[in-house]
Design brief:
disordered C terminus, single chain, 0% strand, Helix Hairpins, hydrolase, NTP-PPase_MazG-like_N, mainly alpha
């Protein structure tokens, strides 16, 4: 009779990364692993990877450094998961992934690891992008395809982020507005086109096309103002959520829990919340109420 495999975790005497790899291998063990982990494949893990990356960003935005440690571990585990599945297929292992990124970082930083001279972060960004463009061109040539400035932009990127990257790539060959003011004019034009489609009673496909153009133009404005559109919208989301929760609290206090006071009353409360925030910003920092999670 086959003896059951031991349940003990890999020993703590292992180096931390080796212990993590051993834990992952145990989770994927066909005989004694975790049923959920065994069911996973590359496509099924992707949503979890994206979620973990956003949780890292969230912890950073909230300034939660201890929480960030945990979230970074979760993100690292995603890489280990992919590496284990690749090893099982005989493709490559974790060490191969590390070697590849080691080689890439050394190759893309000749000013650090060789004799190239780069004297500013801006110059480094240009050099980095030029090197990546050269690598993409070589990959396209190896496939017998004509290279494009837009090669290598993942479709799975958030739409705002990908729009900004597409615009930056196009700008490399001069396809760009010279000034932010011209982008504002383009936004006004796109708004007029959306309005015209609404007046004409256009279907959703036409409206989606025009609203998409408007969002693309607004993304372009953010890029020209050196703002990250994804982070900018995340900030707007956070501001809306903060204000709306305050509106809900005020509405409950004035009209009773669960009440629906109507748009005019809610708009008045919204303006009141905005005024509260303006007054708070004008107060000296020492007079402002401390956040509940602020350190003593």
């Amino acid at each position: 009779m086959t003896q059951p495999k031991p349940k003990a975790a890999p020993p703590e005497s292992l180096a931390p990364i080796d212990r993590l790899l051993a834990i992952m291998a145990r989770l994927r063990d066909p005989d004694a692993g975790c049923p959920w982990d065994l069911e996973q494949d590359f496509p099924t893990i992707v949503p979890h990877t994206i979620e973990e990356a956003y949780e890292v960003a969230d912890a950073i935005e909230r300034g939660q450094m201890e929480e960030l440690k945990s979230e970074l571990g979760d993100l690292m585990f995603q890489v280990v998961f992919y590496a284990q599945m690749a090893r099982e297929r005989g493709l490559y292992g974790f060490d191969d992934i590390v070697r590849a990124v080691n080689d890439k970082m050394i190759r893309r930083h000749p000013h650090v690891f060789a004799d190239a001279a780069i004297d500013s972060a801006g110059a480094q960004t240009v050099a980095w992008e030029e090197q990546k463009a050269g690598e993409r061109a070589a990959e396209a040539a190896a496939k017998g395809a004509a290279p494009s400035q837009l090669d290598g932009l993942p479709l799975a990127l958030p739409a705002l982020t990908r729009a900004a990257k597409l615009q930056r790539r196009a700008a490399r060959i001069g396809f760009d507005w010279p000034e932010a003011a011209q982008v504002l004019d383009k936004i006004v034009e796109e708004i007029a086109e959306v309005r015209a489609e609404m007046v004409d009673g256009a279907g959703k496909d036409r409206l989606a096309d025009e609203v998409g153009d408007l969002l693309f133009a607004v993304t372009n404005l953010a890029r020209h103002l050196e703002l990250d559109p994804e982070q900018t919208l995340r900030g707007a989301n956070a501001k809306f959520e903060r204000r709306f929760r305050r509106v809900e609290a005020l509405a409950a206090a004035e009209h009773g829990a669960g009440a629906r006071p109507g748009l005019d009353a809610l708009e008045a409360l919204w303006q009141r919340v905005k005024q509260e925030e303006r007054e708070l910003r004008r107060r000296p920092k020492t007079d402002r109420p401390r956040r509940p999670d602020a350190s003593a």
